[in-house]
Design goal:
alpha+beta, disordered N terminus, 11 helices
Length: 662
């Protein structure tokens, strides 16, 4: 933010004036050079092999940044590589937040303090299993927007944000005595499309903004890097630890024989998705690949060296049939989610020590870990109770969340029903992402987009005027492929498909909705109307307090709970879901207090027992797919002929329409 930026510069100037007045010398910061030479990167004119650790400052509490940076240096890294996720810094158009856990300049300054260079990946697209690949949700308020293109409605705010990043990081540019040595243009665009004009516009804007003083690069795979390769950018490749390292560079070396080689993402592990098995990757091929790169002076960035946690609502979703990403971004990385060195870490440290001219620093001590005794919840606020719900928005037809100016959290669509017979079908096109359907307050079924685009639910017989409530939770926007245009809630319509007494098909297009928006803000959940907990298996907000004599990192055991979010002392730990594989949530000790602490759990399914405890270890490999919702009607052949009856007030009668492709 402007005030933060000015304050930082004023403090620097004041310190220099004080030193001058006291007679102390004020040496100018040493200015380094970094260039792309013939076959080598050149740091101050000398060959330099980049050994980069990818860590994401936004997945780590800022109190722990220095610890993680020191862990990377002790493993043998000389550089930190980091994405800048646009959506967390600009949650409203034109309003930037670079404070606290979002203080990018402070993170870069800590890297410089510990003698590490920085590779900046400012996007605007990131991927990284992050919500919408880093794009802000409000871009989707424009129905016609074309993401990752030269569409002015996309490119103008993207470049505006790039300009703000440069302003925040100006003191840390190489020509100003800083430590940023390379800047990436976009990210793996070859797997999205072919548009050299778009890539050129981003390149030119980054230069005009002020990044022309360091090499800029673009990364892709060996199979597609030529699609968008610009001749004046450095080309780097991304691949996993099972790849044949030297073979990956064959084509690039043919086209650019004098270019330094770099693997800009060398995948150390993989990410987890809800309802899928926990991912593990052997250390042997990874260590062998790093050794090969060191032997041939190939630079690399290890993705991830430390994954961390996608706190709050920031986990994205994979595009393989829609698989939302788990909160833990442990990634089976050398430094685990809590910041501990793993066996992978020590194996890599041994290899990198062999290629270091100096003895590596000692490995930092692990941060303290505690267990929290069982916490019983005594306060409860019902999820669907009228006095706990925000005021409704009147809406003739259903619209996606974004069209109600709602970015994250949940949405409730409510209307009245016509009279239909038992066995009629409720069809939602399209439902994104997890729905619970109620008639007069009674749950009648669940739908989950991850079960093959579920859209249809069988209804009981209804009488005219009964109330229909559709509660929908947004579970993270897809972060990869063209499916990143991922609007939430209900994107098209809600229909009831029934048969008349004469056997004709009736299609009721439900209208006249009341829409309620449930955000994920702590202020919202904290201000619900809490009473006494009377029973388990209730959907709603649970609140309790617990006392601690000592603080430390811990893992909140959510295995007896259903599905939702957790806040501790105002910090949102992220999503939990009983299906696993993740059954615990990482709670950093820096968010705990000696004495009283507050915990709030929003559970939209309901817990087995309204109690939990904190463990000294994670549970991220316990898959319980049998708990997935199974109420959807699958494989139903819906009739398509036109009905022959009159049209009630909230009903349309006509041909079936296929669900719209996203």
């Amino acid at each position: 933010m402007k005030a933060t930026y000015m304050k930082r510069w004023m403090m620097t100037i004041a310190l220099m004036l004080c030193m001058a007045m006291s007679g102390q010398a004020t040496a100018a910061p040493k200015v380094h050079t970094f260039e792309v030479g013939k076959g080598h990167f050149l740091l101050d004119g000398k060959p330099f092999v980049i050994k980069a650790a990818e860590i994401h400052y936004l997945r780590i509490p800022h109190q722990y940044w220095e610890h993680r940076i020191k862990m990377c240096k002790a493993m043998g890294m000389n550089t930190i590589c980091a994405y800048v996720f646009w959506n967390i810094h600009e949650q409203e158009p034109g309003k930037y937040d670079f404070t606290g856990d979002r203080d990018l300049a402070h993170f870069v300054s800590l890297c410089q303090k510990h003698g590490l260079w920085v590779i900046l990946r400012p996007g605007p697209y990131s991927c990284a299993e992050w919500e919408m690949g880093g794009f802000p949700w409000w871009l989707l308020k424009d129905n016609d927007i074309r993401l990752r293109s030269q569409d002015p409605d996309f490119i103008k705010p993207a470049i505006r944000f790039q300009r703000e990043i440069e302003r925040q990081l100006r003191p840390y540019k190489l020509e100003n005595g800083g430590n940023i040595i390379m800047v990436q243009v976009e990210n793996e665009f070859g797997s999205y499309g072919t548009d050299k004009g778009y890539m050129a516009e981003l390149r030119d804007s980054l230069r005009s903004i002020g990044w022309g003083g360091v090499p800029m690069f673009q990364c892709d795979w060996s199979s597609n890097f030529e699609n968008n390769a610009l001749p004046d950018l450095t080309w780097t490749l991304n691949f996993g630890s099972n790849a044949d390292v030297l073979r990956e560079f064959t084509r690039l070396k043919e086209l650019r024989p004098d270019m330094p080689l770099m693997c800009s993402e060398y995948w150390s592990g993989w990410f987890d998705g809800w309802g899928q098995a926990h991912q593990k990757r052997s250390s042997e091929p990874m260590v062998r690949g790093i050794g090969t790169m060191m032997e041939h002076d190939i630079s690399f960035s290890l993705y991830m060296t430390h994954g961390g946690t996608s706190f709050g609502q920031w986990a994205g979703a994979n595009n393989t049939g829609f698989v939302p990403d788990c909160t833990s971004y442990d990634y089976d990385a050398p430094i685990d989610e809590q910041g501990n060195a793993t066996e992978k870490y020590y194996q890599l440290r041994e290899v990198l020590q062999r290629y270091s001219d100096t003895r590596l620093p000692a490995v930092p001590k692990p941060l303290p870990v505690i267990s929290i005794p069982e916490v019983a919840f005594t306060e409860f606020a019902p999820l669907m109770a009228g006095d706990n719900l925000p005021e409704p928005i009147e809406s003739e037809v259903v619209k996606p969340m974004e069209m109600y100016d709602h970015g994250y959290g949940s949405i409730i669509y409510a209307t009245t029903l016509p009279a239909v017979g038992e066995g009629s079908l409720l069809r939602i096109t399209d439902m994104c992402d997890y729905a619970r359907v109620y008639i007069d307050g009674q749950l009648i079924g669940q739908l989950y987009r991850g079960n093959g685009y579920e859209t249809t639910l069988r209804l009981p017989a209804t009488t005219e005027g009964q109330r229909l409530d559709i509660y929908i939770e947004a579970m993270g926007r897809i972060n990869y492929s063209r499916l990143i245009h991922d609007r939430k809630g209900i994107t098209e319509r809600v229909e009831i498909i029934a048969l008349s007494a004469q056997g004709h098909q009736l299609t009721y297009d439900l209208r006249h909705w009341q829409v309620r928006l449930l955000p994920v803000d702590y202020g919202f959940v904290q201000s619900r109307h809490y009473g006494h907990v009377e029973a388990a298996r209730q959907e709603g907000y649970y609140r309790a307090h617990f006392r601690l004599k000592h603080t430390g990192d811990t893992y909140i055991d959510m295995s007896s709970w259903g599905k939702g979010l957790v806040w501790v002392n105002g910090h949102c730990l992220g999503r939990f879901w009983q299906i696993g594989p993740q059954q615990t949530l990482f709670l950093p000790g820096c968010w705990l207090e000696k004495g009283d602490n507050e915990i709030i759990v929003m559970d939209i399914v309901g817990p087995e027992v309204p109690a939990l405890s904190g463990l000294d270890h994670p549970i991220i490999d316990n898959l319980r797919r049998e708990l997935l919702p199974t109420d959807a009607v699958k494989g139903v052949a819906l009739p398509t002929r036109k009905a022959k009856s009159a049209k009630p007030a909230n009903e349309s009668v006509g041909n079936d329409a296929a669900p719209g492709a996203k």
